[in-house]
Amino acid sequence: MRQLRINTHCRGPLLIVLALLLGGCVNATVDEMTYNEPVAGIGESSVVILGRRHAPDYDTEFDFIECIGDHIHSGDPSIEVINEIAFINQFYPWFEPRTAPMQPQAIDFLLQLPPVADRFAEMKLEYMIWIDGKTVDTESTGSMSCGIGPGVAGCFGFGTWGTESEYEATIWDFTDKVEVGKVSAVTSGQSYMPAVVVPIPIIAPVQGTACDSLGDQLLEYLSAHH
Amino acid sequence: MGRWLLLLCLALLYAGCAAKQVVVEGNFPKPLLDPLPITIGVIYPPAFAQHEFFDEAKGRADSDWLVKTGEAQVEFWDTLFAGMFEEVVHIQSAAALKDRGGEIDGVLIPNIAELQYTIPTHTNVKIYEIWMRYEFRLVDVSAVHEQEDGALTFNPDERLASWPITAYGKTPTAFLQTDEEAVNLAAVVALRDAGAHFITTFGSRPEVASWLDTIALRDQQASMSATTPEATLSSDSQDGAPDQ
Do B34 and A151 make contact, defined as CB atoms within 8 angstroms? Predict the structure, then answer.
């Protein structure tokens, strides 16, 4: 069992100026609690990363899931990460928001269906990772006005807004049908848009940082080389 | 230059309140399950196969919406039924019913009873939603009749089962995604949800379960009566005496 907490802060006037020049500040907090780490890696088995989409007010974004999969595969190309949409289509209708298993024990029910069991066996699936969370924009302030006239157009003003991401990854060991870990990442940041004739967006990579943070922790769990 | 800018502004203004039309399109996967050993007849009534939903603008800032789901409905349910039942017979006319009526175990007739949608301008929530309520009816072949105009109808008193299926699809707003694309995606998610709901509850309806049992019993009896003479002959030739 491991627990880890990382805090990244962007402080001080110099950093803020740099952030303004290069991109917004992002704070990230990552918590990890994992068990039964595959010390030798997962070999020829595969992993699927799926988003939770049963909440009434948000869906875990497909592109976020893809980002984590890419992060893991680029960190260790020997890990085969199955594409989420392809997986959901291949197993239709068993991984739709209405039918997706909420507990690892529910996989036993799916394995009672011969075509489902056969397809899982073909895939050599070892881990199923569920990601639940979202990225939202929070408070925004500032004002900007734009004008257009014959032969001239431009904007003037300043806008700023916050963004927050909160994601939790739950790792299921597919062979033993047990949960073997949780990793969570909470990130927040401020983006800016100064405009003197042309608006210049300085976007804080909040979701990207959450993807990297979760991806790093999952890679460390799954890979023998990290 | 000024004239072009004026035209551009007018075009943008017009685009903001023009009627929006969505013809729902999507790729629908075949369900992963062992098909039921049943020959099912399917009738898509015209109101289903050409289903569309029109919502008139409530204010000047709003737009009219026309959402055409009919083609996608037929494509989706065709794919689903083909994966769920051993054989599917589309009944489009009385002639088709006469030709293959003897093989058909039951006829499914879907109907869209209600469709509602919301977009962010309605709710101030950054989500596009579609909600549908279907009414599925299962009838015996003998209950299907041809009307004078050639359309197929059935006697409601002769139905084997009737049940509602609700479906919900949502999609969050996304960068570079138009309202129409988002509504299309929500409709595709709702269709998939309807299919998942249909598959996971089909056999659990008491009337449907009883119908499935009747078919299973009939098939069992048919296979027994088909195998019994052979078994007797084989037994006769091996033992020289009939089975006890």
Answer: no
Our CA-based measurement puts residue B30 at a distance from the nearest CA of chain A, in whole angstroms, of: 7
Domain residue extents for chain B: 19-26+34-224
CA-to-CA dists, residue A220 to A68, A70, B207, B226, angstroms? 13, 14, 53, 62
CA dist., res. B182 & res. B172, Å (int): 8
pLDDT band at residue A4, thresholds of 50, 70 and 90? very low
At the topology level, CATH places domain B19-26+34-224 in: Rossmann fold (3.40.50)
Does residue A62 belong to the interface with chain B, where contact is any CB pair within 8 Å?
no
- pLDDT higher than threshold 90 for residue A40: no
The CA-atom distances, in angstroms, between B229 and each of B234, B237, B238, B240, B242 are 9, 12, 14, 15, 11
Q: What is the pTM of this model?
A: 0.84
pLDDT tens, A130-165? 999 999 999 899 999 999 988 889 999 999 999 999
Q: Which residues of chain B make contact with A97, given a CB cutoff of 8 A?
A: 193
**A chain contacts of residue B192, beta-carbon cutoff 8 Å:** 92-93, 96
How far is the alpha carbon of B204 from chain A, nearest alpha carbon, in Å?
A: 15
pLDDT score recorded for residue B90:
94
Residue B193 to residue A98, Cβ atoms within 8 A: yes
